[in-house]
Amino acid sequence: MIAAQAKLVYQLNKYYTERCQARKAAIAKSIREVCKVVSDVLKEVEVQEPRFISSLSEIDARYEGLEVISPTEFEVVLYLNQMGVFNFVDDGSLPGCAVLKLSDGRKRSMSLWVEFITASGYLSARKIRSRFQTLVAQAVDKCSYRDVVKMIADTSEVKLRIRERYVVQITPAFKCTGIWPRSAAQWPMPHIPWPGPNRVAEVKAEGFNLLSKECYSLTGKQSSAESDAWVLQFGEAENRLLMGGCRNKCLSVLKTLRDRHLELPGQPLNNYHMKTLLLYECEKHPRETDWDEACLGDRLNGILLQLISCLQCRRCPHYFLPNLDLFQGKPHSALESAAKQTWRLAREILTNPKSLDKL
């Protein structure tokens, strides 16, 4: 048994060195290319409208505020200033979303974002995005990369196509620190020892973001109140939880397998599903020793089996917001074919670790 485990870990480490590192290097090169163009567009936006200040910056060879959705798809979060006069209201009526409401009607004129406040006192995510979209469209025409960048039409999101190869979504957002959403209040579960009180305190202090984008749970039925809502996002908190042991290596292997074998019609699976299931696996295996290098094979198998189960049940709850289903709106047939394909992958890796050489 131990020999089989060791063989799998050896093959996974080889896979990590050969495939995952190559994926990382290729993505890093794409990111540099994309960020040059995006920075130029955002500089142009800032000239027209100083309230939208680019927060895209390179720190230790990583771009702050950039998420990799897939090797050709990225999201850049543009942090806005001065949320001050608004209260954060999250009553659970919109899974995965919250609203920003004026704390006092008399403060309306004091807000930096006065013209985006609705009659009932909400700061409208949609109105801000719509204004930003207009500015980006103008900036694309003026910027020095105008020959290689185009706005993607037919969407309320701000999306750019760069060199006909990459898609970048630019999302206005507010950073919320020092508060924790009510809809995530059940975390951490009292009976689960991971991640421990100190790490929990760190994660909650890290806070979350409020993004101006289409919400999973709202697509297709947006009333005006709902389109004013902001989407909750916990990227930094999640990254902090995944520090230590072989967690990040495991995530790298999962992302690489997804990119190479689970990029399917209907796009049932993205890297965020992989990250979410990895967080659940951390709860199931709370001891740090469960995440030693020698356990990499076991953890990976556990996550792939959990993924199959989620795909078959057609439900994947968000880690912090369990009422939000990350499979909502995905075609059932796409989830079914992803389940079959994941099962083939898992069986292959488990019964014949050497197959990783070909995967």
TrEMBL record:
Record's subcellular location: Cytoplasm; Nucleus
GO term, biological process aspect, one: camera-type eye development
Keyword RNA-binding: no
Provenance organism: Chelonoidis abingdonii (Abingdon island giant tortoise)
Designated name of the protein: Mab-21 like 2
rRNA-binding among keywords: no
Gene3D superfamilies: 1.10.1410.40, 3.30.460.90
PANTHER family registered for this protein in UniProt: CELL FATE DETERMINING PROTEIN MAB21-RELATED, PROTEIN MAB-21-LIKE 2
Lineage top rank: taxon: Eukaryota
A single GO cellular-component term on record: cytoplasm
Protein family (similarity comment): Belongs to the mab-21 family.
All copies of domain Mab-21-like HhH/H2TH-like, residue ranges: 246-343
A Pfam family annotated for this UniProt entry: Mab-21
UniProt keyword list: Cytoplasm, Developmental protein, Nucleus
Matching InterPro entries: Mab-21-like_nuc_Trfase, Mab-21_HhH/H2TH-like, MAB21L/cGLR
Residue ranges annotated for the Mab-21-like nucleotidyltransferase domain, each copy included: 62-243
Principal cellular location given in the protein's record: cytoplasm
